[in-house]
Structure formats: structure tokens, C-alpha cells
Amino acid sequence: MYIQMKIAPPTLDEAARLKALYDYDLLDTEAEKIFDDLTQLAAKICDTPITLISLVDADRQWFKSKVGLDAEETSRDIAFCAHAIHQKEIFEVEDTLLDERFCDNPLVTSAPNIRFYAGTPLVSHNGHAIGTLCVIDDKPNKLTEIQRQALEVLGRSVISQMELRKNIKELKQANEHKTEFLSNMSHELRTPLNAIIGFSRLMLDDINHHKLPAKFSEYISHIDYSGKRLLSVVNSVIDLNKIEAGMMQVQVELICIREFIKDLEGMLAITANEKDVAFLVNISDNVPTHLTIDHAKISQIITNLVHNAIKFTDSGKWVKVEFSLNDENLMITVADQGAGISSTDQTKLFGKFQQVGQSKSSEGSGLGLSITLGLVELLGGTIKVLSTLGSGSIFKVMLPQQSHHDVLQKSVVQEKANFDRSSQILIVEDNEINQAVMLAVFESLHTSVTIAGTGEEALEIVNDRHFDLILMDIHLPGIDGRQTSEKIKQNYPQLPIIALSADAFNQHKFNENDKIWVEYLCKPLEKEKLVQALNRFIPLSPNT
């Protein structure tokens, strides 16, 4: 009697099933050890010469992993797996020659001569069978109950690995979007900060030459310090992913702790005064004059905790900060008479983007305490919260003293300007405020510069005049800083070009082996670092 093999029809959920399959992005990818290990294990347990992870698309079955078979894929029309995906339990054919659906199937009548097939469907998290983990023999067979259970478990492990792979890919994409966002945020925030910090620094450097009321000096100092702290906040948010990835470095130095605390107090007192909250700072007698700390990170920890305390403390009440030393550990205590935190909310307090209790209706990103915890742990410390709803809160931070044999006390004498002031310098910068800052900084160094607002303008100027050094903004309208630098280097390979950018997040992309730029300076531009660069690249001649 003439028999024709049966072709499995499309599944009832075929469109959704195919979407689920394509979402895993596995088709036609390279072999992966984790899937090969599961296939090998299935072959051992079921004692079969052929084992496959088969994914069934619209026209074929493709093998993500295989044991005992050379083929990469087969037509869906002849695929046993095309039948298996129609059911949720194991699909088993003990003897294909006795099954009219398969007895004249080319995979049965010729290589690989399938006589036995058992496949457990690979069911996605939303219930669609995208393929199978199957075992195949060239002689009749039957799985034991233990083998069936093992095959089902391994099938679920396969789909779990697919889900994990998919989640990793999605997280990678999300991180790429986050990186792009942080890069843009860094540039947008640091550009106005460049003006605030740059001009305030210049005014402080020049204030002794003018007869101004003492209060003016104090106000400018607060502007300068607050601008730097805001810059520190921007950097902390940008570096949050570095904290999580364990990539952020601790940078310790020996500093005068009382001067450090005085600067912090001056800035934080402004916020407290605006809300009519008494702000009290106490330094224990056992705190030495100098401590070896990462002052930028500790400043951020204290600032976050104090701002939080002030934020939720009513007018007429107080916020206190105490510093002490206990067994070589720096102890920082921030106490307030605020609303307090319930025990339930305390468990969620340090989560990212979390606003708890009464703070839910308040402004803020919800990142402050998450960053604080990350910084404390990075410094090897601990943070504890003592609070009762309605009775205020106490945050206790313990930070071990950094033992760093290479740390030396910073010299109070800054590196002196020792560069050739007659050198011809070109600054390529499109932002008018940044242009004004740069002109003012170089004026304070008694050095004249030429400004170009675009890459195109810079190319024209360089071709007409000689320059000894170029400071190149990376983000330019038209051709960007890299393209402009590359074009200049083609004609003037020895001309040093320093990259400038307000995008601190992508500073790691600067490669020391990059032949285009000799250095990468980040805006807001620190005058000291600029002087160091000028000393290196346009030094005074020994005969000068």
C-alpha cells in the first residue's frame, strides 16, 4: 500500500511562536558551550547517538547544538521537531517504520536513518514552543521514566539559558542607551559649570588686587565651592555604573581635615539657612589635623546625607554633623529632627530611584542614597540608619583610614607656569561662554590666543598661519573635533593637539596610543592642569 509521510501543519499560534523565536536572536549564531554541554548531557542520559537543540522557523529546522550529526539544518516539511512543537509534553516515536507519519520520511529511509525520536518542546516564557531538545537513535527505542524526566529538565535548562542570553543582550542595549544619556547629560551640565567654576576661580585668584568687601570674597568662595560640588554630583551620577561594575578607583591623599570640613560647612549652611534649619558641626578632639582620605567621595557622602536631612527637617529645628575617630576609623554622624523613617521604608532606603515615606512627594531623582551606599562600600566602610517615624533620623558612617604608602601631602605650591608665552595657540570652541572662559583663563596667564568657532574655520586658519599648539573641542557643529584634528594632522603631523570636552563619561575612550591627540582635558577646565599641559607641549627654551 502506498504511504506518504505526513507534513506537520503550522501551529495555531504560528505568528506569535515565530516572534518568540526571533526575539531570542539565536538562529544562525555560532556554537556556545553552555548549549553544547546540555546536548552532551542529554545524549549520555538517554544513551542515544544523536542529540539536537532544534529551532523551528517558518521554513526549516536549524540546529543550535548537535551531537552525532553533521547537518546544520533541514527542511521543516521533513522535520520531526515540526510535529513535536504541537504539544507541550515529550513527543516520542518508538519505531518510525511502524508510524505512517514517518515511515517514508527521507530522514528515515536515508541518512541519518532515524528509527527512534523523542523531543521535549522548548517553550518560551510566554508559552510558545520554538523548537525541541531531541534525542535520536538508528534503532527502535523507548525512554525510561527517569530519562523522560531528565530530558524535560534539560529542555527547561535550555530555554532558561536562552532567556538568560536574551536578558543579557537587553541589559547590554539598556546600558548602551544609559551610556548615551549620561554622555549627553555630562556634556550639557558641564558646559555651564565650565563658566561658573572658571570665572569664580579667576575672580578668587584676582580678588586680592581689588578693594572689595570681605563678604564678596566669601560669596565667591561659596559659588566656587558649590560649583565644584555640583560638578562632583554630576560625576557621581555618571560614575554610578562604574561603582556597580567595580571599576571606580579610590584616590586618596593627605589633607587638612578641618579645612575640608570648613569648606563643606560653608556650602551646606547656605541650604540650611534658606530653610531656617540650624546647622551644627562638631569635630571631636581625637580627629588629627590631617587624614588620608578620598576627599571627593567623602564630600559627596556627607553632602548627600546632609541635604537629605535638611530636606525633611522643618523650620526651627536642627541638623547636626559630628566627626570623630574610633580605632583608626573616621566616624561621620548626621542627625536630624526630621520626619523619621518607618522600619518598612528603611529596608528600601538605599535602592536606586527609590523615594520612601514623605519623600515620595518631594523633588529628587532617588539616586542620592544609592550613590552614597555605593561610595561608602567602595571606601570599605559601612552605613547604618537609626530612625523612628516622627522622631528624626541618625545616619552613622564608618570609613577605615586608607593605608596608602605612596600618598604624600600635596604641596601648597602649585606647578608654576613655565611655558613659552610667545607661542601661537589656537582654541577651537563653538560655545561662546566657553570661549569667554578660555580667553579669560589665558589672559590671566598673560598669553594671547586665537579662537575658531567651527572645525571648518579652524582648518582655514591653520592653513594660513603657523601654530605651536591647538586646543580642540571634540563636540563641534559640522565636522567634529576628531575629524578636524585628523585633517590637520595630515598636513602638520608634528603639531600637538589637546582634546577638550565636557563629556567626562567618554573620557575613557581617549587612547594614550592615539596619534591624533597628545592629551584629553575635561571641562570645566582646571587651570592647574592646563598649566601642566602648556608646560609640557610649549615649554620655554633652555636659552630663554
Strand order of the largest sheet: 3-2-1-6-5-4
Quickly count the helices: 15
Fourth CATH level, the homologous superfamily of the largest domain: GAF domain
Number of domains: 3
CATH class of the largest domain: Alpha Beta
CA-based shape: elongated
Radius of gyration: 34 Å
The CATH topology of the largest domain comes to: Beta-Lactamase
Largest sheet: 6 strands, antiparallel
Structure classification:
alpha/beta
Could you estimate the helical fraction of the residues in percent?
A: 40-55%
Mean pLDDT, to the nearest integer, reads: 85
Q: Ranges with pLDDT <50 over ≥5 residues?
A: 359-365, 404-413
**Beta strand count:** 18
Strand content: 15-25%
Second CATH tier, the architecture of the largest domain: 2-Layer Sandwich
**What distance separates the N and C termini?**
108 Å
Overview of the molecule:
This protein is α/β, with parallel strands linked by helices. It folds into 3 domains: 14-170, 2-Layer Sandwich (Beta-Lactamase), CATH 3.30.450.40; 253-400, Histidine kinase-like ATPase, C-terminal domain (Heat Shock Protein 90); 425-537, Response regulator (Rossmann fold), CATH 3.40.50.2300. It is 40% helix and 19% strand. The chain contains 15 helices and 18 strands. The strands form 4 sheets. It has a 6-stranded antiparallel sheet. The chain has a 5-stranded mixed sheet with strand order 8-10-11-13-12, covered by helices on one side. The N and C termini lie far apart (108 Å). 32% of the residues are buried.
